[in-house]
Design a protein that fits this description.
By secondary structure, the protein is α+β, with helices and mostly antiparallel strands. Among the domains are: 50 residues, no CATH class; 46 residues, no CATH class; 55 residues, His-Me finger endonuclease fold, CATH 3.40.1800. The strands form 5 sheets. Strands 1-2 form a two-stranded antiparallel ribbon. A two-stranded antiparallel ribbon has the order 3-4. A hairpin with a 7-residue loop joins strand 3 and strand 4. Helix 2 crosses helix 3. The chain is rod-shaped and about 125 Å long. The mean pLDDT is 87.
Length: 228
């Protein structure tokens, strides 16, 4: 096929589609006297995409992803292949749209797979990420405690207690003891005050005769009412 040439009114015939079009509808080409190539922009784009797909397949063995029509307020998840509403995607600061690339179920599945592959499970990941110890260190510390809670001696505690200021691990506690320290904000004065409070308000059984007990407390009596 002969090379196209510019006609008198500044038009050119595309080598692919065969149509005569104005020169400004042809792709730029600095090697041509007119500064325009042999293919119109539409045909040039088709050729470029085909060339890219061929190189991608030959070099990496991959296919070009097909552009999908996604309605506003939705996003395509490449893992499950579904188009879902944006609320079905987790929030992400790394994405310009403020949402992650994968929907929540797929995002969670990927996170589980990563934790399993890198740490052997979610438990190991949680311990290392939050406390800086692994399951081996946890088991060793629990063994040193006799496999019971370091405070109430309840069996099989599962909660790591740590200093909230330094992050240092202090021991393994049961759910109640660990939560109790947190409620008292690790303040020894508050804990000592609680002990004194319980001593002064807790009812005690005192044996005064075989089989007979007196219930006593050091709590002060209520003040008499005004009507009495």
């Amino acid at each position: 096929m002969p090379l196209p040439s510019d006609d008198e009114d500044g038009r050119r015939r595309c080598r692919d589609c065969g149509e005569w079009k104005p020169l400004d509808l042809f792709s730029a080409n600095s090697k041509r006297p007119s500064g325009r190539g042999s293919y119109c922009k539409d045909c040039f784009n088709v050729r470029s995409k085909a060339s890219y797909a061929k190189r991608l397949q030959e070099k990496y063995g991959r296919e070009v992803q097909v552009q999908r029509s996604v309605p506003d307020g939705h996003r395509y998840c490449p893992d499950c292949g579904e188009i879902k509403e944006l609320d079905d995607f987790p929030r992400s600061r790394n994405d310009s749209g403020g949402r992650g690339r994968y929907c929540k179920p797929c995002h969670n599945a990927r996170g589980h797979e990563t934790r399993q592959r890198l740490y052997g499970g979610s438990r190991e990941y949680h311990l290392r990420a939050r406390y800086g110890i692994g399951q081996v260190e946890f088991d060793d510390l629990l063994w040193r405690q006799g496999n019971v809670c370091a405070i109430c001696r309840a069996p099989d505690p599962q909660h790591v207690d740590h200093d909230h200021r330094t992050g240092a691990v202090r021991g393994i506690l049961c759910f109640n003891c660990n939560g109790g320290l947190g409620q008292f904000r690790d303040n020894q004065d508050y804990l000592a005050g609680a002990i004194e409070y319980l001593k002064g308000t807790t009812w005690q059984r005192t044996l005064i005769h075989p089989g007979v007990y007196r219930i006593t407390t050091s709590m002060r009596e209520r003040p008499p009412s005004r009507s009495s």
